[in-house]
Amino acid sequence: MVGSAVSFLQHVADQFRQTSLLEWFGTITGFLCVYLAAKQHILNWPISILSVGAYAILFYQYGLFGDAFLQVYFFGTAVYGWYFWIRRKQEHQKPVASLSSREWGLTVGAILLLAVVLGLFLAHFTNSTVPYIDGFCTAMSFVAQFLMTRKVMQNWLLWIIVDICYIPLYLYKDLYLTALLYFVFLGPATLGYIDWRRSWKQAR
């Protein structure tokens, strides 16, 4: 038992020592963009572009094709979010929005449908070893990112679920630094939801 624990810790330490500069860059910029998004700071979008570029290459190399494709989507939403946040500020609209019960239902339905489609696609057309969990995480991230660009506070609730799901997935793929990053993401995501909810209430 003790020997197995020591071996696991040695393996983790070896993986951290072997972590590529690309993963370090993606991790650092990824943390910065999430922290700035939680603070509603517009610089989260250009920093996000740097992070998703690094992770698009990294995930493709590790066979996480759903996540690699997701980074391309993140790039597009980062450009759109940057523009939308600037326009929203200039028009003095409410800074944060909230989903109605009907919109929540549509959101959950969209996530489940997209997760099934992506899972089946990855299972049949790629050599992914984790097609369905990759598809589910990709689908939820897809929707959460869109909600963030529109400044909908529930995006943070989805990100919290995504972060919890991604941690074991990245550990399985030996992406220990990225797994640690998603564990750390739980803090800013929780604070982001609290802060955005406070802003939404103040603007009502």
TrEMBL record:
Top-rank taxon, per record: Bacteria
User: Could you tell me one molecular function GO term of this UniProt entry?
Assistant: nicotinamide riboside transmembrane transporter activity
Q: Which keywords appear in this protein's UniProt record, sorted alphabetically?
A: Cell membrane, Membrane, Transmembrane, Transmembrane helix, Transport
Report the InterPro entries cross-referenced here: NMN_transpt_PnuC
Localization (cell): Cell membrane
Q: What does this protein do?
A: Required for nicotinamide riboside transport across the inner membrane.
List the PANTHER family hit by this protein, alphabetically. Answer: NICOTINAMIDE RIBOSIDE TRANSPORTER PNUC
**Identification of the protein by name:** Nicotinamide riboside transporter PnuC
